[in-house]
Design goal:
Elements lengths: L1 E2 L10 E3 L15 H11 L22 H10 L3 H4 L3 H22 L9 E3 L3 E4 L2 E4 L5 E3 L4 E4 L3 H7 L7 H20 L15 H19 L13 E3 L2 H13 L2 H9 L12 H14 L10
Parallel strand pairs: 2-3, 3-7
Antiparallel strand pairs: 1-8, 4-5, 6-7
Helix pairs in contact: 4-6, 6-7, 6-8, 7-10, 8-10
């Protein structure tokens, strides 16, 4: 995956609270087995940590001056995105939101941009307080994506994904898929408490995978408003393979087999590795969000 070296990154779409002290007491989820279970349960769930029983105190994260300055100073151009992980994530956020903004406009609707919050260890959100053990998530109460960049190392070391820049992009695009669902009123279908291979919770997650694939199809043709050129200039078959590998690595069956030694479909919340790859591939093949109706 390659970015236009001359493109200007919009850091206003990222709030960086890494290194800031978050008030409100102890971290809600520690490391070790408890943290791992929380990560498995919360991974890409698309809802806030309060619905995982991980809340502590409420409140909103405050973007510290030092944190914002770090992103603003280091992540200015596409060239920065080609060399730094945090700047790459900023660029992916820009590209994903540019696409959905333009797609909603094409369909005669309005897209509301959602910031991504970079945090470390612990963060307060509109949905409650959570530690980084929860993994990446989208909070519908404040309409923000929350991401500890250290998760990408865990994706390789704990879940066996091959990694690569586009594996990271897939994670970001999936979470923004939940934002799209929130705007369209479909995200709430995952919050009835039911689990299982045929549950709405699984269908919501698979649809977010499909939306991630739709963005990937258009990533190299979606034009950046500041330059009139695509922010992402190259996306290879190897990149897509990395995305598919990441999708499979976080399939319910893979996670259950890896961490509990058996597969229990009745407790699925995200779908199997095969299903997640299937729906990401469907979105990428068609490039049409209308083909992402996993509820049919």
């Amino acid at each position: 995956m390659q970015f236009d070296d001359d493109a200007r990154l919009d850091t206003s779409e990222v709030q960086d609270v890494r290194g800031s002290r978050i008030p409100g007491g102890r971290a809600t989820v520690g490391g070790g087995v408890v943290g791992l279970i929380a990560l498995v349960l919360g991974l890409f769930l698309g809802v806030g940590p309060d619905q995982l029983g991980l809340t502590d105190s409420g409140g909103q994260p405050a973007a510290t001056a030092s944190g914002l300055a770090q992103v603003e100073q280091n992540c200015r151009t596409g060239q920065d995105a080609n060399t730094r992980d945090d700047c790459r994530t900023v660029a992916v956020v820009n590209s994903v939101q540019d696409y959905w903004d333009q797609e909603f406009t094409r369909r005669g609707a309005g897209y509301s941009r959602s910031p991504t919050v970079f945090f470390g260890e612990r963060v307060n959100t509109g949905c409650g307080s959570a530690s980084s053990a929860v993994g990446p998530f989208y909070c519908p109460d404040d309409r923000k994506v929350y991401l500890d960049l250290g998760f990408f190392d865990e994706l390789r070391s704990e879940f066996g994904a091959t990694g690569g820049p586009f594996a990271q992009a897939y994670v970001v695009a999936h979470e923004y898929g939940h934002h799209v669902q929130d705007l369209m009123g479909t995200l709430s279908r995952s919050q009835d408490g039911r689990t299982g291979a045929d549950s709405d919770a699984v269908k919501v997650e698979l649809q977010a995978d499909c939306y991630a694939g739709v963005w990937a199809r258009h990533a190299t043709t979606t034009k950046d408003e500041s330059t009139g050129r695509p922010l992402i200039t190259r996306l290879t078959d190897a990149d897509i393979t990395d995305g598919l590998d990441a999708a499979a690595a976080v399939g319910d069956d893979r996670i259950q087999e890896r961490f509990q030694g058996r597969v229990t479909p009745d407790s699925w919340t995200h779908g199997s590795a095969e299903q997640r790859q299937q729906w990401f591939r469907e979105g990428y093949r068609s490039g049409d969000m209308g083909r992402c109706d996993t509820f049919r």
